[in-house]
User: Fold this.
Amino acid sequence: MERVRRASHAGSWYTDNAQNLEEQLDGWLRDARLTKSFAVRGVIAPHAGYSYSGRCAAYAFGNIDPANISRVFLLGPSHHYYTTKCALTRTTLYKTPIGDLPIDSDVINELYATGKFEWMDINIDEAEHSMEMHLPYIAKVFKGYPVTIVPILVGALNSVNEAMYGQLLAKYIDNPKNFFSISSDFCHWGSRFNYQYNDMKYGAIYKSIEALDRMGMDIIETGDAEVFTQYLQQFENTICGRHPISVFLHMLKNSLKNISINFMFYEQSSQCKSMRDSSVSYASAVAKSDN
Assistant:
């Protein structure tokens, strides 16, 4: 029996008009002027409303050559539901305004059989936006290519479990037919986010935020999950996808392939100049294999 996850944020976080959505995505992908590559095995991309982060996300998804990929794993943080584990969808289909994406039930069941995952109820699934905001780009990039998806909601993991899930998932990135889409925004700055770190040596607040984010991005590029954890502990940067990113870093560490991460684009929703301001940062990266 088909169990469908609606495109629950279409019409609010992004347009539910298929033609307008296609045109938007086309425009951002065209403007990014990227060369598609078989070597790209994963991306890190933001998940805010498209008016904020749609352009940035194109610098991740525009690198994908869909020809040899048959399965996309989605790792997104949980914003509304608290769990110390990772959760799997009970659905068989994720809808988008520009094409539906079937769930790879065989892989979902294989993961659940490890005893390390829990099920995600449909109300939790549809309330969460972190993976949904990647779906239209995936539907766009893989249009005309048969692809299934494996959505994994990543809970509030401790460092031991981040390593465990990374080891468990590493075998999947070793298969070149699999692709990983990691969902994360970067610094959420302002009193409404309860985070106002400011290093005065950079002058304007927004420059301090960028320096903080770029420090984290540089660490992610090294692939060192332990140093990334230390950075988060020291600065408490409000990177909402820190757990999916950490799992991904542990995957790459345990992979038989040599896969490196490079950030392609960075921007902020606005430039904070006073303590009354607020902003969210967005960054896009690609993970490329050299073998």
